[in-house]
Design goal:
- With 163 residues, the chain is of the alpha/beta class.
- The protein has one domain: Glucose Oxidase, domain 1 (3-Layer(bba) Sandwich), CATH 3.50.30.40.
- The protein is built from five helices and twelve strands.
- The strands form two sheets. Strands 1, 2, 3, 4, 5, 6, 7, 8, 11 and 12 form a ten-stranded mixed beta sheet that branches. Strands 9-10 form a two-stranded antiparallel ribbon.
- It starts with a helix and ends with a strand.
Length: 163
């Protein structure tokens, strides 16, 4: 990919000024084998329950990025090595979690981008509680289904339209 989030910000200052382009705040850490990835958002809102994460990653990703609002919980992991492999096998470009991941050695070899607030070895519950394809709050930034996500070593951009 020939773009960078820094260059996209510089080229689209008007979109930043009017709110069509936003940046996730610092603090998201990279996992997975892709440091740079982009695609349309598919959104989930869950809390310490990853059943909907799994069922969504079982579907064809078609280059999309699964954006998971886990409420910022640091008490259990919403994505681990098995889900990373599932995402890779089903064509997801990436996963961004407002929460934790686990199995980082396994995630780091998956050909998918993964960003999360941190790691914890404890797995989440599996009750299938949550919402799909809804506006989610990622550390203060609202992400709508279909928003374009651009992620690289310098950060994550959320755009209402392709850049």
């Amino acid at each position: 990919m020939s773009w960078s989030t820094c260059d996209l910000c510089d080229a689209h200052e008007d979109k930043i000024a009017d709110g069509r382009l936003q940046t996730l705040p610092p603090g998201y850490r990279h996992f997975g084998n892709r440091q740079r990835f982009a695609g349309p958002a598919r959104t989930l809102k869950v809390f310490e329950d990853n059943a909907l994460v799994r069922s969504t990653l079982e579907t064809p990703g078609e280059g999309k990025i699964l954006v998971v609002d886990g409420g910022g919980s640091l008490r259990s992991a919403l994505v681990g090595g098995n889900l990373g492999k599932l995402a890779e096998g089903n064509g997801w470009a990436g996963i961004i979690v407002n929460g934790c991941v686990r199995d980082t050695l396994e995630l780091n070899v998956c050909d998918v981008g993964v960003l999360a607030l941190g790691t914890i070895p404890r797995r989440s519950e599996r009750k299938s509680v949550g919402e799909k394809d809804t506006v989610v709050n990622m550390s203060g930034v609202l992400v709508h289904p279909g928003d374009m996500i651009y992620a690289d070593e310098d950060g994550v951009l959320v755009s209402r339209e392709p850049l």
